Structure formats: C-alpha cells, structure tokens
Amino acid sequence: MRVLSGIQPSGKLHIGNYFGAMRQNLALQAEHEGFYFIADYHALTNSPRPADIRQWTLDVAMDYLALGLDPQKTVFWRQSDVPEVTELTWFFSCVTPKALLERCTTYKDKVAQGLSPNHGLFTYPVLQAADILIFKSNLVPVGADQKQHLEITRDIAQFFNNVYGQIFPLPKDHILESVAVVPGIDGRKMSKSYGNAIEIFESESSVKKKIMSIVTDSTPVESPKDPDKCNVFAMLKLFASPEEIKEWEQKYRRGGTGYGHVKKRLVELMHEFFRPYRHKRQELESNPDKVEKILLDGAARARAVARQTINEVREAVGFRGMKS
Ligand code: ADP
Ligand code: TRP
C-alpha cells in the first residue's frame, strides 16, 4: 500500500503539526511504502519571501528527519523538484467544475479572515489532487481539516477516469480522530499563522514561557474545574500516560489544583518527549548538504513514478507521450 502525505513549509513546525500529522506519517512508514514531501508549491499561495520559503523548507526537512523519517525506506522530497505535478494540475483543472472549488471550506475560511485570495489559493485542492494521484497513492494520512481536500481529490479522480479511462485509483484518508485539533496557547486551533504555536524544536526556555502563558479561565485554585474545557489539559493529554491523565482529571474535578501546577507538569512532559530528538536535529543543522542530498535522492525516485503517470495521462487525453 502506498501512503502519501505532504506538509507545507510555511513556518516552523509546531506540536499541532506533530500530533495532527507527522506522528501518524512516521508510524505508517514502518508498514507501508511511504511517499512524503514538502509542499513548497502549495506554500507559494501565501506569497512568502524567497529566503523564508528556502529556510522553512530546510527546517521541515530537518524536523522530519530528526523525528525519525527514514529516507532509505521512505521517499522524501521537495514538491518543486518534481514539476510534473504542475502539468497534471492543468489536466485536472480542465475536468474540475469551478463550483466544486467554490465550496471548499479551507478557501472560504481564508477569504472570511480577510485574505485577498490569489488564483493559486483557489486551485490549491487541484494541485493537492495532482500530488496524491500522480503517485497513484492509496492512503493519505492528514489532519481532520484536510478531509474535504481528500473528497475533492476522489471527485477529481472520478471525473478524469470517467472521461479518459481508469487511470487513477481512489485514495482513502486516514485521520487520527483522537487528537483532531491541538489548541494553541490562546485556545484557538494551534496554527503557524495565528502566532499561538509552540514549535517542536524551539528552545526549552521559550517552550516553558509559552506554556506558562496558555490562556485559562479564572476559576480559583480551590474550586473544582472541568478538564474538558481546559487548554492546558488538552495539551497534557498529548504527552502524559493514560494513568497520569486520569489522575489529573480527578484533581481537576476535586478542586485544589491550580492551572499553574498543570502547566509546570506539561513543561516537563513536553521537554522529556522531544529531548531525544533535539540531538539529531542539531546534527542535521550543522550538515545542510546532507539534508539537500537526501531531498534530491528522494526527488529522483519520486520523479521516476511521476513521469510514468504523466505519460499515461498525456496519451489518454490525446497528446504525445514524453518518453525521455
Ligand atoms: P498551520 O495551520 O500551522 O499552517 P498546516 O495547515 O500547514 O498548519 O498543517 C499541516 C498539517 O498539520 C495538516 O495535516 C494539519 O491537519 C495538521 N495540523 C495543523 N495544525 C493542527 C492542529 N492544531 N491540530 C491538529 N492538527 C494540526
Ligand atoms: N494541504 C496540506 C496541508 O495544508 C498539505 C498538502 C499538500 C498535502 N499536498 C498534499 C497533504 C497531499 C496530503 C497530500 O496540510
């Protein structure tokens, strides 16, 4: 089974990205054929500065490798090193109803936030469909917010297959419901773009500062509290053992525990969790050429597959195939 996932280099990766996406991808590479890439074409829809996108791409690569992505086994590359996906995007654009993209909630949300959208943002799901389908992927592990993009991908595959023949298998999404949304320090969904994120590899002192500033309500220490309404508890659940989670739950309900106590424990747990990976991250930082080589090797492997699909598609639509 081929498992594919992409992640945008739109800033430093945070614990929402880790629990919502990366952890699943890392676990899946053990049993499946993994195809993981850094979605820099997608990130361009946010109009980043060239120096930033270059740095963030490198950061994502180092984060993933430090956290356990095995480039011997898993194909790992930078999206823009396989330009065939942009060609497939065009073929798909010509079978995709505009109305389908107008219904897309990720697009509508960004517009509602006041962003003035470029055409790339509007056709973002078509590029995503091309990413997935060019490798004839079977399973796509993503966060819950990407479910609709997977539905659109299946729609596009069907539109294309209906017109040109059965070229694309329909991919399934794989969503870890239990950690559907990790809250940020302000209680909204943790996101690079909200300034409320805790980065996986930011300094331990900065992590501590952020955790201590997580927004809570003003229930006094001695009063009982509802753990399910607390952002600190929501984060603690990501790191603590089931027994410890149960203990904290009881402490909340009993009263007598302040949010400050829980925050301190959360700092310890998060440090313990990521500390083993920090060393590897530092080693990669001092060796960017090695990281670049891994990405280029991955691109060569990915491109061989992408070229085959593009040939098939070109011939199916009545164009000349490109053999070389
Ligand atoms: P961001 O919102 O920070 O820009 P992305 O949209 O690039 O994050 O998301 C990358 C991946 O991480 C996606 O699969 C997304 O579902 C997941 N993800 C991002 N933020 C969270 C979160 N707060 N909780 C759970 N998953 C998340
Ligand atoms: N849209 C995804 C996100 O923001 C990133 C992405 C791009 C992706 N292409 C993909 C995810 C293909 C899965 C498969 O998280």
Residue-averaged pLDDT: 94
**Helical proportion, percent range:** 55-70%
CATH superfamily assignment of the largest domain? HUPs
**Small molecules (ligands, ions, cofactors) in the structure:** adenosine-5'-diphosphate, tryptophan
- What Rg, in angstroms, do the CA atoms define? 21 Å
Shape: globular
CATH architecture of the largest domain: 3-Layer(aba) Sandwich
Spatial separation of the terminal alpha carbons: 28 Å
CATH topology value of the largest domain: Rossmann fold
Q: Describe it for me?
A:
The protein is mostly helical and 324 residues long. The chain has two domains: 2-181 and 288-317, HUPs (Rossmann fold, 3-Layer(aba) Sandwich), CATH 3.40.50.620; 201-283, Tyrosyl-Transfer RNA Synthetase (Orthogonal Bundle). Helices cover 55% and strands 7% of the residues. It contains 14 helices and five strands. It has helices spanning 15-28, 40-43, 50-66, 84-93, 98-102, 105-112, 119-122, 124-134, 147-164, 204-212, 231-239, 242-254, 259-285, 288-317, and strands at residues 2-7, 33-38, 75-78, 139-141, 172-174. The strands form two sheets. Strands 1-2-3 form a three-stranded parallel β-sheet. Strands 4-5 form a two-stranded parallel sheet. Helix 4 (84-93) packs across helix 8 (124-134), helix 4 (84-93) packs parallel to helix 14 (288-317) and helix 11 (231-239) crosses helix 13 (259-285). The radius of gyration is 21 Å and the shape is globular. The model has no long low-confidence stretch (mean pLDDT 94). Bound molecules: adenosine-5'-diphosphate and tryptophan (TRP). Adenosine-5'-diphosphate binds at residues 7-8, 10, 16-17, 20-21, 142-143, 145-146, 181-182, 189-193. The site of tryptophan has 14 residues, from strand 1 and helix 8.
